[in-house]
Amino acid sequence: MKTLTNGPIIYVDDDEDDRFLFERAIRDLALPNEIRSFADGLEARSYLETTQEKPLLILCDINMPVMNGLEFRRLIDADEYLRKKSIPFVFYTTAAGPELVNLAYEGTIQGFHVKATEFSANKEQLNLIITYWKACIHPNSF
């Protein structure tokens, strides 16, 4: 059995500042994973359809133009090739409320996290999420 601990982390968020802070937090944590950042679900989908890389995790915002996070997750679920990649999908967003969380969990997501507002707390939160997924066994681990 192999682990996918060093695969790239996919981050989907339309906010350029949030993408910058995410990448900075990952660098500060000294994680070996490369980051693949995309401004919307369509860009991320193009990458997923063509890459030979085995991403560790997808962290995705919800409120984005072009294709929001919920639509992106549904697209992955509806596409057999993308679904069978078995990449954990976690919402990482500023938007939260009972209706939105329930709607998100109607799909096949593996987590829902509200972004911490302070950088140090945000970094700690990302470390916990990524550490958890590095310890998990994925279908592609065999």
UniProtKB/TrEMBL annotation:
Matches recorded under InterPro entries: CheY-like_superfamily, Sig_transdc_resp-reg_receiver, TCS_response_regulator
Keyword Phosphoprotein: yes
Transmembrane domains' residue ranges: none
Modified residues (4-aspartylphosphate): 61
Keyword Phosphoprotein: yes
Keywords: Phosphoprotein
GO terms (BP aspect): phosphorelay signal transduction system
A family per Pfam: Response_reg
Superkingdom of this protein's organism: Bacteria
Response regulatory domain: residues covered: 8-130
The protein's name in its UniProt record: Response regulator
Phylogenetic placement of the source organism: Bacteria, Pseudomonadati, Bacteroidota, Cytophagia, Cytophagales
